[in-house]
Automatic annotation (TrEMBL):
Name used for this protein in its record: Uncharacterized protein
Domain of life: Bacteria
Region annotation (Disordered) ranges: 82-108
InterPro entries: Split_barrel_FMN-bd
Length: 127
């Protein structure tokens, strides 16, 4: 199954881990990433600690835990490659496309792009 199809059809929980330039680590719950045509992924990020960490350290890890019994999913080691603040594009990509959500929580959001450096299964080394 290709990555785009995997994230479109698999339910679960995502966790993004980042660290600042001093090595202070953070992790946060994130939605499934958007898989772009070039194979990179993108996350819609509010302007909070995870995004702030990426300003000084472009490396991150994303873990996706599939819904259901057992421990199934994927781990990705990422490098930030770009970012944009086009709110129309972000709104069109948002899976929760309700304008009410934005009205209730008007924080700025960015579309942050990542290159996948390495992919592993949720559990084990993948070898």
């Amino acid at each position: 199954m290709e990555l785009k199809e995997y994230f479109e059809n698999t339910k679960g929980t995502g966790v993004l881990s980042t660290a600042d330039s001093q090595g202070n680590v953070d992790c946060a719950i994130y939605a499934r990433p958007h898989v772009m045509q070039d194979g990179n992924i993108a996350l819609i990020m509010r302007h909070r600690l995870s995004r702030q960490n990426l300003q000084s350290n472009p490396r991150a890890a994303y873990m996706f835990i599939e819904q259901g019994p057992g421990y199934k999913g994927k781990r990705f080691f990422l490098t930030k490659t770009g970012e944009e603040q086009d709110q129309e594009k972000i709104q069109s990509m948002s899976r929760r496309s309700s304008h009410a959500d934005q009205d209730l929580n008007p924080e700025p959001r960015s579309l942050v792009y990542f290159r996948i450096e390495k992919e592993l299964p949720l559990v084990g080394s993948g070898e």
